[in-house]
Amino acid sequence: MSAEGAGRALCLDVRGLNVAYPGVAGPIEVVRDASFEVVEGQCLGIVGESGSGKSQSCLALMGLLPRQARVGGSIRFRGRELLADGAREARSLRGRELAMVFQDPISALTPHLRIGTQLGEVLRRHLGTNAAEARTRAALMLTHVGIDHPEQRLRQYPHQLSGGMRQRVMIAMACLCGPALLLADEPTTALDAAVQAQVIALLRSMRTELGMAMVLVTHDLALLSGLADRIVVMYAGRVVESASAAELFARPLHPYTAGLLACVPRWTDAPPSRFASIPGVPPGPGAVGGGCAFAPRCTRAAARCLQSRPELAPRADGRCVACHFPHA
Amino acid sequence: MMRYFAARLAWALPTLFAILTLTFFLVRTAPGGPFDEERALPPDIRRNLDAAYGLDQPLWVQFGHYLARVAHGDFGPSFKYRDFSVTELIAQGFPISAGLGISAMALALVGGIAAGTFAALRRREAGDRLAMAAAVLGITVPTFVLLPFLALVFGVYLKWLPVAGWEPGSLRYFVLPVLALALPPLAVISRLTRASMIEVLDSDYVRTARAKGLSPAAVIWRHALPPALIPVAGYLAPALAAIMTGSLVVESIAGLPGIGRYLVQGALNRDYTLVLGMVVVYSTLLILMGLIVDLIFALLDPRVRFRA
Amino acid sequence: MSGGWWNEAARRFGADKVAVAAALAVLVLVLLALLGGALNPNDAQALDWSRIATAPALAHAHWFGTDRLGRDLFVRTLAGARLSLSIGLVATAVSVGIGVSYGAVAGYCGGRIDQLMMRLIETLSGLPLIFFVIFLTVIVGNSLLLLFAAIGAVGWLTMARIVRGLTLSIRQKEYIEAARAGGLTASRIVLRHVVPNLLGPVIVYATLTIPQVVLFESFLSFLGLGVQEPRASLGTLIAEGAAEMESAAWMLLIPGAFLTLLLLSLNLVGDGLRDALDESAHVR
C-alpha cells in the first residue's frame, strides 16, 4: 500500500528504462519501458525468468552494460540523474553509495589478487583510507559478514575460499563504504541449498544493520517472501505487475505472477502430485509482436491479448498490473 | 611452489645432457672433418693435429673429456679460429648478441602488449582492424627481408641510420637490427594479448572491479592485465627461440660481431667445437627461459603457486 | 560428417573475402612459378653479358632486371619460387606423415605410452630445433633431399599434438561406442568416423605448415646453408639482393616482395580455412 513508504524519500526512481542492442534487423530491445522505485531502507524484489530483462535492468543501474548497449529513460538515485551524469561522477557513486553483488561468486573475484587487496582498494578509492586503516576496516567487515579469522582470510586468494565464503566476501566488499542501495543479482543461484539460506539471512541482517535499501533480483519468488517490501514482476523485458510483497503473495493479479506463485511448493498443502510449472518458454528478445508477450502461454488469453498489448496502469485499489484479464 | 619449481629443474638438467649427447655424436659420426679442406696436409702433420685436438681417441673417451670440460665452462679450442678457444669467442660475441636480444624482446613485449590491449579496448573499431592487419603482415614478413628493406629505406635512401656495421658504444647501429628482430614476435604478442584481453574484459571479475567504481586504468592494470598476460608468458620461450633464430640472419646482414654469426660460420666451416658450444649456449638459454616462464606463471596465477 | 558439413565449410570460406582473395593470389603465384620459364624468352642460368645488373624495364626482355652476372631475374625468381614451393610441399607431406601417425598412436594408446610420447614432444619443442637442422645440413652436406627431410622432421611436432588431442577426444565419443556396439569392424570405424573427423584440422594445419616450411627453407638458403648456386631459391636471391641493394635495389625488392606475398597469401588461406571449418564444426 502507498502508506508504507509515506514520508520517506525515494532512494531510487527508475522511469521508462529502455535497454537495446544493435542487431542485424534493427535494435534488439531487452528492457522496455520499465519503471519502478525503491524507498530508502526498503527492499525491492525483481522477479522473472531468464531473459526477462531483470539482470539487464540491474546492470543498467550500475552503468555496467556493454558499450554497444543503448540505454534510454531516467534513473534517479537520491535525486541525481545517473544516465545524465558523466562517467566520472557515476564511477564515484559506484562502489560507495551504490554497490552490487553478483550471481557467481566463483568467477566474480579477481583470481590473482588477495582478498585483502580487493577489499582494501574499495576503501582507498572512495574514502582515501590508508593501507593499514583499510586493512583493519576490511577485517572488521569480514567479521561482520560472519567470516572467522579475518586477518588470515585477507591474505588468501579467492581460490582458497569456498563458494559461500566468496559470496560473503562479495557482500562485505559491497557494504564496505556503507552504501545507500545494494543491488543483488541472483546472489544465491550458484550456491548450495544450505548456503543459500545463510546468504539470504546475511543479506537481511546487513540491510537492517546498515539501514540500506536493496534491490534483490531473482527467478525464485519464494526467496522474496519475508525479505522484500515490494515486488516487481518482469516478463519479456517489461514490468507486468508491481505490488507490495504482502499483496502480491496474497492476491496475484497477473496470470504470470499467479503461475510463478503456483510453482512455489507450499508444505501446508497436500503433497503435490507434480510440481506446477508454466508451460512453454518466454519469447526471445525481438520476437514479441503487437500483443501481450505472455499471451501464448496464458490460460486466460483471449483474441484481444494477441492484438493489443496491455499497458501497466494503476487501478482503483492502487495496484499496478499489465493485463486485460487480471485475476480478481 | 618449491616442489613445483624443483620438478621443472629436475627435468631441465637431463634435457641439457640429452642435447649435449645428441649433438656431440651427430657431429662426430658425420662424414668430413674440419681439416679436410686443407688437402695438402702431410699424414704426420695430420696425425699431430688430430692428436692435439684429441681426435685420435675413441669417441666415448672424447665425449667424456668434452663433458668434463663443458662442466667447467670450457668448450675447447675452435678448429677454425686456431688462436681462440670457443669460450673466448662466445665471451666476445655474447654481450652484443645479448644486448640485441634483450632489446628486441623488451620492444616486442612492450609494443605487443600495448598494441594488443589497445586493440582489445577498441574491439571491431577501425584502430583494432588496422592494428590486426599490421600484425598479420608483421608475422609474415621474414626478418631477412625486413632488415635489408629497412636498411634500404632508412640507410640508403633517407640516410638516417647506418646501413650496417658496428662501433663499440654506438647505439645507432643497433636500431634497425633490433627493430627487425622485434617485429615478428611483437606481432604475435599483440595478437595473443588482444585475444586474451577480450576474454578477460568480458569476465565477471572485471565487471566486479568496474562495479567497485575503480578508474578504467586501475581496472585494466590491476585486474585485467595480469591474467591476460598468461598466454603471452606461454609464448616467451618460442619468442626467445624466434629472436635467436632471427639473430643469425640479423647479425650476418648488419655485420654485428655477435655469437649468431659464429654459429653460421661454424656450420659453414664444420667447426665442431664452436657449433657444439653454440648449441649448448642456445639450449641452456632456452631451458633457462622455460624456468623463468614457470616462475612468471606462478606470479600471474596464484593457483599455480599453491599446486603441490 | 555428411557432405553438408563440407558444403557449409566451403560456403563460409567463399564468404570470407580476404581468404578468397588470398586463395586467388596463391593460385596466380603458383601458376607463375610453374609457367615462369615459358612466359619469358630468357633462361634461368643464361648469362647476358651485355646487360649486367640492369634495372627492370619492358624494353629489353628482362622484366625484373638482371643480376650481376647478367642472369634474368624474372625467370630466376620464378624458378626459385618453384623450388621453394616444391620443398614446401614435400616437407609438409613428410611432417604430416610423421605428425599424424605419431599423434594417432599416442592418442589411440592413451595412458602411459601417451604420456611418454607427449613428454618427448614437449621436450623437443622446447629446443632450438632450427639449430639442429643447421647442424644436419652441415653434417650431411647440402643435398636437397636432406633439406626436405630435415625441415619436415622439425615441423611435425604441432601436427602430432593436434592429431593426438583429436584422436583422444574422438575415442571417447559415443558414436564410436555405438558403431562398435553395432558390430562395425575397427577398420570401418577408423575410415567412417575417425578419418573424417581428423581430416579438417589436418588439412588446415598442413596448409599453415607450407608457408612455415617455405620460410624455413628461404632462411637456410639465405644463410648459404640451403639451396646452392647455380640453383636459385627465393632465399638465395634475397641474400644476393641484400648484398647488392645499394646499387641494385630491385635485386632485393623483387624476390623479397614475391616471398612475402607468397607467405602472406598462404597464411591467409590457412587462417580462412581454419575459421571456415571451425565455425561449421560449431554449427553442426
In words, what does this structure look like?
The complex is a heterotrimer of chains A (328), B (308) and C (284). Chain A has 328 residues and is an alpha/beta fold. Chain A has helices at 54-62, 87-93, 105-108, 115-127, 131-144, 150-154, 163-175, 193-210, 221-224, 245-250, 255-263, 303-307, and strands at 10-21, 28-39, 43-47, 70-77, 80-81, 98-101, 181-185, 213-218, 230-235, 238-244, 313-314, 320-321. An eight-stranded mixed beta sheet of chain A has the order 6-7-8-3-9-10-12-11, with helices on both faces. The longest helix of chain A is centred in the middle third of the chain and has 18 residues, at 193-210. Chain B has a single domain (86-307), classed as MetI-like (MetI-like fold), CATH 1.10.3720.10. Helices cover 77% and strands 0% of the residues of chain B. Chain B is built from 13 helices and no strands. Chain B has helices at 2-29, 43-52, 59-71, 86-121, 126-140, 143-157, 172-201, 204-211, 216-228, 230-254, 259-269, 272-300, 302-305. In chain B, α4 (86-121) crosses α7 and α10 (230-254) packs antiparallel against α12. The longest helix of chain B has 36 residues, at 86-121. Chain C is mainly alpha-helical and 284 residues long. Chain C starts with a helix and ends with a helix. The mean pLDDT of chain C is 78. Chains B and C meet through α1, α5, α6, α10 and α11 of B and α5, α8, α9 and α10 of C.
- Gross CATH architecture of chain C: Orthogonal Bundle
Arithmetic mean pLDDT of chain A? 85
How many individual helices of chain C? 10
Percentage of residues assigned to helices of chain C:
over 70%
Report the order of strands and helices of chain C: HHHHHHHHHH
Helix % of chain A is: 25-40%
Can you tell me the CATH class of chain C?
Mainly Alpha
Task: Describe the largest sheet of chain C.
Answer: none
* Uncertain parts of chain C: none
Q: What percentage of amino acids of chain C are in beta strands?
A: under 5%
What is the global morphology of chain A? globular
Work out the largest interface and the residue count of each chain. Answer: B-C, 45 and 40 residues
How are the SSEs placed, and which strands pair?
The complex is a heterotrimer of chains A (328), B (308) and C (284).
Chain A: E1 10-21, E2 28-39, E3 43-47, H1 54-62, E4 70-77, E5 80-81, H2 87-93, E6 98-101, H3 105-108, H4 115-127, H5 131-144, H6 150-154, H7 163-175, E7 181-185, H8 193-210, E8 213-218, H9 221-224, E9 230-235, E10 238-244, H10 245-250, H11 255-263, H12 303-307, E11 313-314, E12 320-321
Parallel strand pairs in A: 3-8, 3-9, 6-7, 7-8
Antiparallel strand pairs in A: 1-2, 1-4, 4-5, 9-10, 10-12, 11-12
Helix pairs in contact in A: 4-5, 5-7, 7-8
Chain B: H1 2-29, H2 43-52, H3 59-71, H4 86-121, H5 126-140, H6 143-157, H7 172-201, H8 204-211, H9 216-228, H10 230-254, H11 259-269, H12 272-300, H13 302-305
Chain C: H1 3-15, H2 17-39, H3 73-109, H4 111-125, H5 129-140, H6 144-171, H7 174-181, H8 186-222, H9 234-244, H10 250-283
